[in-house]
Amino acid sequence: MTRYMLSVHSANGVAQEPMSAEEMQQSWQQIGALESEMKAAGAWVFSGRLHEPGTATVVRVANGEILTTDGPFAEAKEHLGGFYIINADDLDAALAWASKVTRIIGTPIEVWPFADFADEPRG
Amino acid sequence: MAGIDEAEIGRVFRDNSGRSVATLIRVFGDIDIAEDAVQEAYTLALTRWARDGAPPNPGGWITTTARKRAIDRLRRESRERELLGQMAASALGSDDPDIPEETGPVQDDRLRLIFTCCHPALSAEAQVALTLRLLGGLSTEEVARSFLVAEPTMAQRLVRAKHKIKAARIPYRVPADHELPDRLRAVLSVVYLIYNAGLNSPAERGLCAEAVRLGRLLTTLMPDEPEAAGLLGLLLLTESRRASRTGADGSLVLLGEQDRSRWDRAAIAEGLRIVQWCLRRNQPGPYQLQAAINAVHADAASAAETDWSQIVALYDQLLVVLPTPVVALNRAVAIGEVHGPAAALALVDELDLDNYYPFHATRADMLRRLGRECEAAAAYSRAADLAPTDAEREFFRRGGRAYRP
């Protein structure tokens, strides 16, 4: 069993096709149903949706002091919009969940394996 | 028994190492352990076989010897104890180095391995490199040379790909039926890419033979897949003409001008049998149709006797299942043979293939046949600028003639 993060990427400031209230409702229902399916299959660990990148704050150490600045850390055209943490037998199983998510929300999903200590390259 | 020389030992290993590596990956669940163990078996064979000759069943010897080496290594490495506990039961089968040839599940191991190597989560470059290294048994240096990259670059590429397989847990199994069509397409395209890399790089013709070998392996492992058969047919029929594709001075010889007595009749016969089998199956796909087109060429006793209307009909079908500009270009060439250069040029000019040298070469040929010499010369010069091999560049600089992509 491997743990994966399915990260959902959104393009900054690009207005997607505005959804009607009805479409929005439908999409939420589909997401809800998918999450129930993930839970029933024992795959779901955690999931969350994030506010827009302007709400993020970065802390870092500069000259030994903690420096707090407005986020996000990476100025990119795309940002993390939300994520799922899942358990899956292998990459194909994780990709199958990711395919279901992307079909509903219409934005690309990145599938990342979590590193265990056992996976670290041996020194 | 008389000893055998190093070249012969290398050949036997290359023929058998894919099977051994695949089996050991299943047993130990780790590509590096499998590769290192087969490498150690090779080192041992270099002294033992050189003195005593090859064992009666070299493949079985390699697998058994490598398996023992891997277990020895795991025993030495205490941190692998837990893994050894899990694996030992299945791995410690026989101590007899001349166990009978393993069949059944062992073949499945190679099939599993090729689907792992050609998993879409890996880059196309990594897919090709892994397939040649693990299934083809090429050394990292040979793989690097084939693709004109430095050995450390290729070594790095292989290390990264293997790390991804492990970290992301790319599965080691034949895909389920509903995934199979997509995944098989990826596998076939890797084999086709390997063949074309060999065709386009005169120094690395070994890649063509390797691709044919892999194609044959796929048809053995998946005897009911018409596209796997189609790919093998296409490779064999292309391969049958490879020697006559180049003149004595290394220059390019076109299909219409090739000495057909130099074509490899055995390869053609096998390719034609495969195409006929595909026709009977009647589940056409891109590789089968391309094989069928090549079969029409192979069937013609001379270039003039080529059944071009049959070729046009096949390209019509191919364009439905593989609607790419390159297919449309090749179809235009066939149309040119049936309906003349003006009809072909009109089709060619609709295509967006400005960086594809056969596009310019084809245009040049049509323009020349229409007597538009200046435009033809400009198109030949553009083809020469883009051509990948010296032979082709030289050919276009000398003013082309009837080029067929």
Keywords:
heterodimer, A: 123 residues, alpha+beta, Alpha-Beta Plaits, four-stranded antiparallel β-sheet, 6 strands, 36% strand, B: 405 residues, mainly alpha, Arc Repressor Mutant, subunit A, 4 domains, 19 helices
CATH homology group of chain A? Dimeric alpha+beta barrel
Oligomer kind: heterodimer
How many DSSP-defined strands of chain B?
0
How would the global form of chain B be characterised?
elongated
Strand content of chain A: 35-45%
- Given the C-alpha coordinates, what overall shape of chain A results? globular
Distance between the termini of chain B: 52 Å
Q: What is the count of DSSP helices of chain A, taking H or I runs of 4+ residues?
A: 2
- SSE order of chain A: EHEEEEHE
> Any idea how many domains of chain A?
1
Describe this structure in words.
The complex is a heterodimer of chains A (123) and B (405). Chain A is of the alpha+beta class and 123 residues long. Helices cover 28% and strands 36% of the residues of chain A. Chain A is built from 2 helices and 6 strands. In chain A, a hairpin with a 2-residue loop joins strand 3 and strand 4. In chain A, helix 1 runs antiparallel to helix 2. Chain B is mainly alpha-helical. Chain B folds into 4 domains: 94 residues; 98 residues, Arc Repressor Mutant, subunit A (Orthogonal Bundle), CATH 1.10.10; 98 residues, no CATH class; 82 residues, Tetratricopeptide repeat domain (Serine Threonine Protein Phosphatase 5, Tetratricopeptide repeat, Alpha Horseshoe), CATH 1.25.40. Chain B has 19 helices and no strands. Chain B is elongated and about 80 Å long. Chain B starts with 5 loop residues before the first helix and ends in an 8-residue tail after the last helix. Chains A and B meet through helix 2 of A and helix 8 of B.
